[in-house]
Amino acid sequence: MLDSHGRDINYLRISVTGMCNLRCSYCMPEGGIKKKAHKEILSLETIEQIAFSAVDLGFQKIRITGGEPLVRKGIIDVIHQIAQLKSRGLKDLGLTTNGTLLSGYADELKKMGLTRVNISLDSLDAEKYSQITRGGKLSSVLEGIQAAKEAKLWPLKINVVLIGGFNDDEIEEFVNLTREDDVEVRFIELMPIGEASGWDREHFLSGTEILKRVPQLMPLAVKGQGAVARLYKLPNSKGRVGIISPLSNHFCNYCNRIRITPDGKLKPCLHSDLELDIRNYGEDYERFLLDGVFAKPNRHSMQNEDYEPVLRNMNEIGG
User: Fold this and answer.
1) Is residue 134 annotated as involved in ligand binding?
2) pTM score, two decimals?
3) 23 is in an annotated binding site
4) Do the annotations mark residue 149 as ligand-binding?
5) pLDDT in tens, 7-53
6) Is residue 252 annotated as involved in ligand binding?
7) Is there a binding annotation on residue 279?
8) Is residue 27 marked as binding?
9) Residue 191 marked ligand-binding
10) At the topology level of CATH, where does 9-314 sit?
């Protein structure tokens, strides 16, 4: 489905909850967030109906996000129901998770039809991981990664938010994960969103820092419209390294996605406060999605001097 700028919009991200069992400094307030009343968040049935409408409109990829989606009661059933849409044209059903609960879910998620997982992991040092997540255990994430491998949730991607002064000394260690494992380690520039908007300048590092630290990385061709990561590979390695640079090297010309928040707002652009409220559409989910597609701006304005960071935290948007 083409938007008003000629881009094929075929990727829908649905955030099923703003709740999370971690409190990452750049994503969530220290005290967490106030739990919304049941009527304030999308029902599982509505999420499934939105997915059904999206596939009928030509969306080929759906990703379930949070907060932490595995804390949402009934998430396994949602995955199972959406996976049935593969017979109607859905090609990829993914999940973004912090990995801490994944060891108990990976096998069942695979059986229910999940295609792949992206696991967020910002440090390989147990103490630093606990610091950035405000109490998380690195061991539980590593167990989740192993479970995803054993369940064959491929391709397995590990998302690393690049934070100057915190984890930039671990760049080489993260890259080395790709030597013997068929995983994609993706470095993502810190973005001025919500909780991160006050300290992003101090901690921002361009994605090009990866290539400075690991000059032996070789560029790979990126296949497919909508690919946001520039891909690289160490000589003779099994895995790949991705660099996602929404600030220093934006990919708006290739953006193929829209997002739906857990409280039923459609965000045509991650970096804009523009939102469409599902409550204004009754059960006309196709019109809801179509209006979202045609509301997509040509590009974000993060590099403009007058840019005001979006108000929502990443956990509320689907980060």
Assistant:
1) no
2) 0.93
3) no
4) no
5) 999 999 999 999 999 998 888 877 777 888 888 999 999 999 999 99
6) yes
7) no
8) yes
9) yes
10) TIM Barrel (3.20.20)
